Structures are given as C-alpha cells and as structure tokens.
What we know:
Oligomer: single chain
Mean pLDDT: 74
Largest sheet: 5 strands, antiparallel
Shape: elongated
Low-confidence stretches: 49-70
Amino acid sequence: MNGGPQHMPSYKASVLVNGAIFTSSDTFGSSKEAQNQAAMRAFLNLTWPSSASSTPTEEVGATKPQETPVTRLSKRQLQNYARKNNLDEPVFTIITVGPPHNFHYKATVVIGGKSFDSPTFFNTIKDAEQGAAKVALKELPISADLFKKASILVISYVISN
C-alpha cells in the first residue's frame, strides 16, 4: 500500500506463505524494501523459535486452532521431509511418567540416523510426538526445494495518510 505525498510515497507490504499473512511492521520509501521486510518476517517465523515480533498478522481461511503447545502439522511435515529426502519413515518412541490418572508423555523421533526429543512432557502422546517432530524439523538441514514448493504471494500496498 502506498501513502504519503505523491513525490514521497511510503510503502507497506504483506506476504502470504502457506496460508499465513506476514506484514512489514514499518513503512518504506520503496515497495521492494517493504516486500523484503515482510518476506524476512515470514522467513524468521518459519525458521526460528516463535517470538512476538515475527508472528503472522492473520490466518487466511483457517479456523482458530484450539490452545495447544505444538503445531499439528509437524509430524506430517517430518514424514514428507523423510519421503522427499529418501529417508526411512520417522520412528517415534514414547516415555510415560506419572500416576495412571495423570500420565505425561515425552517423545523421541529417529530420522536419518539422528534422534530428537520433544522439548518437554505433554498431556497427550500426540502432542509429544508433534513436539519431537517440530524439534527435528528445526534441526534437520533444509533443502532448497522447500522454498520452491512453498506457496508464496507477495502483496504490496501504499500507505495513505
């Protein structure tokens, strides 16, 4: 979006990456700068542990997820990663602790000869497996194909005062 006087426009941009919109937090003198910052916010959100400064501004066409400490797609993404990189399917093992009425679970996943543990204990086996898968995805090398296959749409706009 373009704003400001015609002789000195200011730009803001948004990028849509796999259904999540990331918007530049500042205005810039060129649309390219605004697009770069929006793309950088998306990149940081997808590659670094979450932080308040790099979260998507909104979800497109998605229902609000229930409160859960992990992303539900991590296990499936890890399985896809294994298939695309000609690795054996990930193997999950579970550690259960606590009394029967209050079990807690921690998972370990082995993929490509490396093992990755969930960061903490979870209330469900599914969440523990998702947590371990998320850790593995952050630690495993990213292939260049990942960025080619991501669904990305750049939206640029001028800010009006």
